[in-house]
Amino acid sequence: MIITRFAPSPTGYLHIGGLRTALYSYLIAKQSNGKFLLRIEDTDRERFVADGVLNILKSLYWAGIIPDEGVKLDCESIVGECAATQEGESGPYVQSERLEIYQKYADELIEKGFAYYCFCAQERLEELRKKQQENKQATGYDGHCREVDIKEAKKKIANGEKYAVRMKMPKNGVTIFQDLIRGEVSFKNELVDDQVILKSDGFPTYHLAVVVDDHLMGITHIIRGEEWLSSVPKHIQLYKYLGWEPPKFAHLPLLLNSDKSKLSKRQGDVSVSDYIKKGYLPEALINFVAFLGWNPGGEKEIFSLDELAKEFSLEKVGKAGAVFNLQKLDWYNQQYIRRLAPREFVARALPFLADGKLLTEPKIENEEHEKRLEKILGLERERITTLSELPEMIRFAFELPDYESELLVWKKSSAEEAKNALSEVKEYLNKFSVQEWTKNNLEQKTGEWIKEKGYGNGVVLWPLRVSLSGQKDSPGPFEIMDALEKEESIIRLETAIAKF
To answer: CA 221, CA 6: separation in Å to the nearest integer?
Structure first.
């Protein structure tokens, strides 16, 4: 069985790159009826963010990437109160709860002669790094404590000296492995330094923890970012030292800004929660992220999560960096917004309407309220890029903005003509029954009336639209009247006439 994992560090909120890693890992597991596991790697205590774990979980659940095992979310809705729980037989799934396990394997490596105690102070290491940089040498540990006798080392520990544990990398030979994306990759062992695997505070570094956890949790495929590629020789060596079979590796290409620099906060939003707040749909973000490095071939661009699980393959993931094209994400979001059923569109928009103070709470009051919202939101559905744009674009439908009477006058008309046209069209529209008050009927009948009266379209339709919206730019008058319904539409026309 294929078992994949996503193992984020809660040193911040879920990054778009992390979402892609989680997505690819999820897809590989799902297409083979395997398991997708979520582990939290929280050994970096200095950069730990208190709400980082919940943010990661909520972002993944929002996107539809639900772990089968590991750290999971316990709540009715991700917008409410939630807690992180653990589920599975290979736990705990939070690394800070596994310190005894890492200590056990660090001790085993020392006993076998594959690791050693290091007593070098931070000052010495910093001075070493400084000299290496001055001499234009590769930076790395110089093996100062590598040959310290084990008995001598244990005396130092008994005397209270602080220590870390370092692994012994072979000083000759080559480490060769097959990467599922990059093919054969090799590193000269002499260029890989003796990495710290257990810090002086008892916490493991990434290198020991990831090897131990992936083995004990039965991970068969490791999918992660390109930045971890140079760590593979250390990991393979640890697998060998511990007598374990390494899993398969796949290292994803970097995500790049449009200028080909590495995607970073300095040039825009990089966390998933940024895009949630802006009103991107999960389906759109997932579809977009899937294509950041992967291309199935062919012209199809719209894929559901289930379709991605069927089509995705690591063989079609490229090696070159993938450019994060915001315009393409916007296009995806527009496509998915337009595909939503009216009721679903309203449901997705509710939190944004509440945030914009258009609703007191993000909920539907009754069926009539829902139908009215469907019409109002439908006014701008084809024009928006994200749901967060909706409140300002439809605010006029909830509250008529103040405007000057000059705005009611079409450029080829006069104030007197505008007032007369509005007065007459108001009297005409007032004769429509509530049942007749539909967009198509209003548009057809009013168009016929304009011709009969001998008016130009602009003379009537411009002031009609402005009186309904209070804006220079807005949807057409008949769409607005249909959404506002008869009573509110007539009131707004009367308000406009009074402005003259």
So the answer is: 11
Contacts 24+ apart (CB under 8 A), 417-422: 417/459, 418/459, 418/462, 418/463, 418/500, 419/497, 419/500, 421/455, 421/459, 421/460, 421/463, 421/464, 422/460, 422/463, 422/464, 422/467, 422/493, 422/496, 422/497
Dihedral sign computed on CA atoms, order 428, 434, 435, 437: positive
H or E element: which one contains 86? strand 83-87
Domain at 3-95+255-323, CATH from 3.40.50.620, 3.40.50.410, 3.60.70.12, 3.90.1150.10? 3.40.50.620
Percent of the chain beyond pLDDT 70? 99
Q: What is the CATH number of domain 405-499?
A: 1.10.10.350
Considering 130, 131, 262, 265, which one is annotated as catalytic? 265
Which residues lie across from 408 on neighbouring strands?
none
Domains 3-95+255-323 and 98-252 share a fold: yes
Separation of alpha carbons 41 and 21, rounded Å: 15
Residue 126 has pLDDT above 80, yes or no: yes
CATH topology of domain 98-252: Rossmann fold (3.40.50)
| Pick from 129, 249, 141, 248: nearest CA to 197 | 141
Between 3.30.310, 3.40.1000, 2.60.40, 1.10.8, what CATH number should domain 340-398 receive? 1.10.8
Report d(CA 450, CA 85) in Å as an integer. Answer: 66
Query: What tens digit of pLDDT does each residue of 23-81 get?
Result: 999 999 999 999 999 999 998 888 888 899 999 999 999 999 999 999 999 988 888 88
CB atoms near residue 5 (< 10 Å): 29
Domains in the chain: boundaries: 3-95+255-323, 98-252, 340-398, 405-499
Strands 164-167 and 196-198: antiparallel
Tell me how far apart the alpha carbons of residues 294 and 298 are, in angstroms, rounded to a whole number. Answer: 12
168-184 tens-digit pLDDT: 999 999 999 999 999 99
* Total residues belonging to the chain: 500
Q: Does 265 qualify as catalytic in the annotation?
A: yes
